[in-house]
Amino acid sequence: MQINRIxxxxxxxxxxxxxxxxxxxxGKKEGQGPMKKWFDVILKDDSYGEKTWEKSESKILxxxxxxxxxxxxxxxxxxxxxxxxxxxNQLMSSxxxxxxxxxxxxxxxxxxxxxxxxxxxxxxxxxxxxxxNIIAAASSHYCTAERQFRMPLEHGNQRPPSAQWTVTGAGSxxxxxxxxxxxxxxxxxxxxxxxxxxxxxxxxxxxxxxxxQMGAAMAPATVDTIMQHLKDTGREPSYYDVxxxxxxGMVxxxxxxxxxxxxxxxxxxxxDDCGAMMYEKEQDAHSGGSGCGCSASIFSGHIFKEMxxxxxxxxxxxxxxALLSTISSQQGESIxxxxxxxxxxxx
Amino acid sequence: MQINRIxxxxxxxxxxxxxxxxxxxxGKKEGQGPMKKWFDVILKDDSYGEKTWEKSESKILxxxxxxxxxxxxxxxxxxxxxxxxxxxNQLMSSxxxxxxxxxxxxxxxxxxxxxxxxxxxxxxxxxxxxxxNIIAAASSHYCTAERQFRMPLEHGNQRPPSAQWTVTGAGSxxxxxxxxxxxxxxxxxxxxxxxxxxxxxxxxxxxxxxxxQMGAAMAPATVDTIMQHLKDTGREPSYYDVxxxxxxGMVxxxxxxxxxxxxxxxxxxxxDDCGAMMYEKEQDAHSGGSGCGCSASIFSGHIFKEMxxxxxxxxxxxxxxALLSTISSQQGESIxxxxxxxxxxxx
Lengths: 347, 347
Known about the structure:
Two copies of one chain form a homodimer.
Chain A: E1 5-6, E2 10-12, E3 18-26, E4 41-42, H1 53-72, E5 81-86, H2 92-101, E6 105-107, H3 114-127, E7 133-140, H4 142-149, E8 165-166, E9 169-176, E10 184-185, E11 188-189, E12 193-199, E13 204-205, H5 214-233, E14 242-245, H6 249-262, E15 271-273, H7 274-278, E16 289-290, H8 292-308, E17 314-322, E18 336-346
Parallel strand pairs in A: 3-4, 5-6, 5-7, 8-16, 14-15, 14-17
Antiparallel strand pairs in A: 1-2, 2-12, 3-9, 3-12, 7-9, 10-11, 12-18, 13-18, 17-18
């Protein structure tokens, strides 16, 4: 039996599952930020024509999936399973999306780490020969998250500078055991994207109880997973063109750099954070973006397209999650952080 | 590359991942029901010494995992990942359990289908060579579920006869790529349990909106998965000694039998339901048990032990989930049902 594992926490995909299609659908505010040119759809109205924010989010997720299928040249009948999750209690967005699409469904919850959780398990199902085509997806919505985790929108409460802004958006990728038929992008043959490794994170709790300090709460878990990944694979940070954490925002991004430097790991030339990348400073999003949809839409938009064009060759994506609940904070608990890493290469 | 898949929705595990240990921890009421002799721990007090019900549930889950490890002869350092979920918003029980155990963690949400979701993905990780030892687990607690999904406990509301009682309990199984060292049970060599197949379900929504009719809401999804499993594997129901659905209760169990009979599939001699098995009629649990902990504790208690002794040889376990959310019902949505099946054989 082949061992598809190296080191303590890292899977190796010898059959190189391909990411053959992707799409990102985002809200109006996200479509005004620096990432706007990479998104497939930018909504004019975040309600997306639905009567409740939860139904809007579910529709955004479904749209991202249908566009990714189109991008991959697949029909939903060719898909073996959807792996998806979101922040809404009981995964309402994902469950109702999966009800509509009628594809076998595995619901995942990793808070904002969900995009890499779904990519990891999707890659395992393809690489291991259990599936031929898988949808991996995740979503979030400012209006569903804000009222569930924080305050009613109508309350108009003040946010501290360390707070992050939940991204309205969804990302979806199609994983397949077959490579994508050759396509040309700007006169050059497009690269084929393959998932090569994945590192499953363990929970690190820094003892932070302030729900406006999510970046700080998740940074130590991010550092733990990056270091474990480098150790397991024997790689230096410079192996990657890009090391991208999920959504730590400005505050958390700085902490990650500092903590890694203390361990003599310098990521300064390759590291960035999806939360820090999502908005312009003038957009009043304070420390940056957050939510499952943040790393999901940036991977499925910016990173996927840059890799297809060969402008990024090797990327390490680390979505990060804060595993607090709506009541754990009220019960005096600190915020458990988690981060999962996925290595993707364009070949 | 080996294809580990048959039919439309079924994985085949050629390397036969072993279930080398299991444990079930339940509350006082569950410990007074017909399954009592199979549980490893029956609590005297469902608070389990904790100040909040959520922390009680997390502690019950952790206890079931630690006992399963002991039963399997493994230490937590030998475990590659925990796959677990529960009903509490943001998987509070599982997240805080995983924080304490410091093992790589993948959170799953399939409502009451979570036990088979974790078994399926755990079996995939072992069978595919991505892990050597995995913990698959799930939990629920009457007091956390009741106040989250229904009414404050102090309200003492009336429950209709079709309502089910959320099980206070957790079940955990240890999956391994190595067989368990030979043990004797009652003078006979114990059987080795292997996971042979898994069928991932798709969502079936029967249009039911009454949250006191969960069994009826989940029954069509259960029938869909049973029929798909039989079709994919080419088996008759009689192949199995036991076909056990998750927690449809008395009402849902009858519907499953009726719907299958309409399709000329007679399961009457082998079929039962964990929800229907959990309580005595006099225990006032109305239609029976529900919650992730229901099928989790019955598989990890009764079924695991009977299979180890060779009294059950072939079992098909189908945990069933109602993927409604705390707000989807308020928004007029019907209840999406899902069911995943896992085939286990004692060899």
